[in-house]
Fold:
Amino acid sequence: MEFVLLIFLPVIFAILVPFVYKKIKGIHTGWFVLLVPLVLFGYYASFLPLVMDGGHAISEMKWIPSLGIAFTSYIDGLSLLFTLLITGIGSLVVLYSVFYMDREKEDLGSFYVYLLIFMTAMLGVVQSDNTMTLYLFWELTSISSFLLIGFWYTKDKSRFGALKSMMITVFGGLMMLGAFILLSIMGETFSVRELIAEAPELVSQPYFTLALVLLLLGAFTKSAQFPFYIWLPDAMEAPTPVSAYLHSATMVKAGIYLVARFTPIFGSASTWIWLVTGIGLLTLFWGSFFAVKQTDLKAILAFSTVSQLGLIMSLLGAGAISYHATAAVFGFATYAAIFHLINHAAFKGGLFMIAGIIDHETGTRDIRKLGGLMSVMPISFTVAAIGSLSMAGLPPFSGFLSKEMFLESMVALRHFELFNFDTWGILFPIVAWIASVFTFTYSMYFVLKTFIGQKKLDQLPKQPHEAPIGMLISPMILASIVILVFFIPNVVGKWIIKPAVMAIQPTLYANPSAIDIHVKAWHGFGAAGLWLTIGIVAFGTLLYLTIPKWQPLYRMQPDSLSLNNGYDAMMRGSEKGLNRVSRLYMTGKIRTYLLYMFAFMSVTIIALLFIKDAFVLDMNSFAAITLYGSLNAIVLILSVGFVVFAKSRLAAIIALGGVGYSVALFFVIFKAPDLALTQLVIETVSVALFLLAFKHLPALSTHGETKRNKMVNLIVSLSVGVMVTLVALSSHSQKMIPSISQYYKDTVKTEAAGGNIVNVILVDYRGFDTLFEIAVLAIAGIAVLGMIRLRVSRKEPTDENK
Amino acid sequence: MKTNDVILQTTAKVVFFIIFLFSIHIFFAGHYAPGGGFVGGLLTTGAIVLLLLAFDLRTIQQILPFNFTVMTAIGLLLALGTAAGSIFFNVPFFTHAFSDFDLPLFGHTSLHTAMLFDSGVYLVVVGSAITIIQSIGGDD
Structure:
């Protein structure tokens, strides 16, 4: 089967959703939507045995063959891992949303349509082998994310967050497109696989570093790396199922995917290793540090997501070192990155769902109002505790294993001796350790402040109680995965992680089973990871207990220096500046705009004639001057003069008709019946139209023009006249290219079975032109209708925040 | 303001049909003699404008109870559909087909898909021109 078509299954189903929503009122629409990710998950899971042996599957559908653009679904370890995450977490999120989104109050039709569009987009991103379609799907994820964040569009904050995420991620997407174009120039292909095969030659190309930086901009904006992470906290205005799905488990990992996918191409460059590892670690620290500042449950999770994404990013960077050093520990880093990615999707998805449950059942997400919910919501507490402890890196949860591997990798960076790592490398484990301390602190902060401590029931908008069981199923499944993975890490490794690592580092291993990594929970007392973890727990507990003492420190950072403020200032500034620029030339008067157009047209065309030296005057080919012709010309000139100098508009309109008719007569004289006919009818209809609009037009007046205006008008109109004359003369005199008319004469009978060349040109030879012309005509008609009809029915400005 | 202009109105009633039939003729003749969908459409518009000058807008809307915006859309669809139809025969976009048929009543006739496209043009021209005239003229 052509499984590339399955990418489009969600979006095709999305077409049905509004009908299902309208027609079937009794059943929550989510139940129908749930089928899509479930079916896809089941289908894609059948690729596991193939991929486990290092194999891959390709399915292609042509799109624009002439440009080499095709929808290509390429399934190897890496894309299969992401595909399973998208469909697996997708199923759980849809299940959760059935209970979270109220059937009566919410616009479920739109919600599930957006969600399904996202699913297609995301599957497309991770499966596309063609960079152009990858870009297409990439931007589609940004757009669907925009729609989902702004789902409650009546809230100011939702709209702001939606726009912010769109601005930043689309900016990154465009940068990434630049990288793809540079890569296609260097490698002469859009295919990622072929680019990877050419990787050794690409390194020495001049655009290599530029492409690298542009690609990373795309990845960093999407995966919320420093300093682009600022959109993610604002994206938390989305409904919680969306936050759990897009903004923790899948979409923000698209950047990780991109970095992983392109590691075989760029990984050998020192810039890549420094940027990916450095920015990743900085983000890890920054996110974990600021997470403790937050008071909104979802904001804490957002910052923690930012920091965890940084962690995975830095591991991928460190993994790229394996192109330079043979030490197994760097292959280890890539393994850890993939492992942590899976773990993070599981525990963070669960935590988001719990945050949604708390919001749903208590009416608030403000951690200052929450407390002591453990006895009220015991199941939620258990799930939250499992997720948080896994996030903090404690056994017996899966996060512990990947966290240890992360620490080991960072410690190992010291031993790397290229690119100044021997001097600066010591910073990496230190930053990683400090960030991990804060990670521990905010994990505790999240779960303990909410569930332990004093009950503050009087501050809650609702009387809290345990969530319905349906809502708890998804987080419970995720929590059990977290525990399960801790006990069978090597099974997961064999089936999923090793094939993915193999896809990231294809040159290093012959097949996935050649990756010699065995994950253990216990490495003995000599392991660095163990002592670092003990330190993290000790210091983290200390920091947690003293939160009230040092939390005021956050206030020392003035708001004016924050990144958010920078973004706001940039947006405000560009809006103001661009407004000012456009006000310079936008006067709101059609006269001015016509002046611009005519001036531009005449200047460019006259300049072109000069540059091409096209002034050839060949008097021989001119038609002889006849009595009819000269009389007609006199009439034409007289009526043009009448149009210009007429005192009343009515006279000018009639004179304009005269101009048109005399031009039509010229067509008759020179034997162009089609043109003459058309010109005559057009003149008639347009004069009638003018007369109809006549009563709406203001009286002819000077419109307060100064002498200077009039001079400019005169110059522009003269230059347009000169331009038209020159074009007419030179186009008549230039016979450099043989005329095409003979071709028409020869083929009009045989090819088009017609007799009238003019009409056959219109409908056949140049049918495209006609098609677009009538499209323009239709648009013009509808625009006039809209302008005039809708002006009458304009109502009071509506308030979006109803 | 409208005067009861009997001569104009009576003439318009007759002339309208003459122009209209001529426009149809010109439209069909297009492939072999001067004419075609564009001119045909314009001529029809001209005929309607003549009626409009003789009578008022409301009368016209009673005589010709079409939705001209819809007509524009149908025309555009027809034109695009003709052009796109060639895709289903595995030939490039916009490939026209023609053949000769022996039809009852008409006798030996040659039929073109170009004609379908041209009728799209005709409908768009009439539809959007009348839409513009109706909106401007009806805006009191």
Notes: The radius of gyration of chain B is 18 Å. Chain B has a mean pLDDT of 84. Chain B touches chain A through 48 residues (CB under 8 Å).
